[in-house]
Every structure is written in structure tokens, then in C-alpha cells.
């Protein structure tokens, strides 16, 4: 295992989550994470942007990975279980159970488009 000092610097600056229906996906993510995103024009695309004060991203209409893409971990404000419950009601499915790692706990969900999203609770 490498020490924190020997790890490379943070290099991820933006994440894009592809969705089939931007309005429906915006509603799903707003429900799960307690956000208030609204679609907006960014460059030549209409997106719903999330995050501030650090790494962020957006939802954008495009080809979806259907459960085969990378996992994007997003911090939850009130615990993994509460986020899991909201996600289940909103139409998510889940991969395995809650996993504990030194930085916190997470659960991988599949959003309605099949994107793999980690519901992450910091330690």
C-alpha cells in the first residue's frame, strides 16, 4: 500500500454522467442527493451541473454505459442508508452491500440509466 505522501496529486477535475432524459435524471439526482439542479446551457449542450468548491460534474444527454462504466462516488449528507432509501424509491438498483473503507462507507447504486454511482459517507 502506498503512503498518502507518495500518491499522485488530485487530477480529476470534472465528471460527466450520461443520461437518456435530462429532465428525468435531474429529478432523480435532486431526490437522491437533496440538490436543486436545473438544466442550463453550457457551451453547446444543455446540462444539469452539480458540485461547488471542488470537483463537480454534470448530467448530459448521451449514450449510457448501462452498468458497465466507471463508478463515480458522490458524498451524501445524511448517511448511506438514508440516501439508499431515497434512491430505491426513486428507481435505483444496487450492487452488493455497504462497504467500509478507511475514508468512510459507500454503496454502489445503478441510476435509472444504469450509471454506477457510489453513495459515499465520509468517516
Topology, please?
Blueprint: E1 14-19, H1 22-33, E2 40-42, E3 45-50, E4 56-61, E5 71-75, H2 80-90, E6 93-101, E7 104-110, E8 116-122
Helix pairs in contact: 1-2
Total helices: the number is 2
Tally of individual domains: 1
What distance separates the N and C termini?
20 Å
Percent of residues in β-strands? 35-45%
Broad CATH class: Alpha Beta
Q: What structural category do the secondary elements indicate? A: alpha/beta
CATH superfamily: 2,3-Dihydroxybiphenyl 1,2-Dioxygenase, domain 1
Explain the overall architecture:
By secondary structure, the protein is an alpha/beta fold. It has one domain: Roll (2,3-Dihydroxybiphenyl 1,2-Dioxygenase, domain 1). It has helices at 22-33, 80-90, and strands spanning 14-19, 40-42, 45-50, 56-61, 71-75, 93-101, 104-110, 116-122. A 4-stranded mixed sheet has the order 1-4-3-2, covered by helices on one side. The protein is globular. The model has no long low-confidence stretch (mean pLDDT 91).
Question: What's this model, at a glance?
Answer:
The chain is α/β, with parallel strands linked by helices and 123 residues long. Helices cover 19% and strands 40% of the residues.
Observed structural traits:
2 helices; alpha/beta
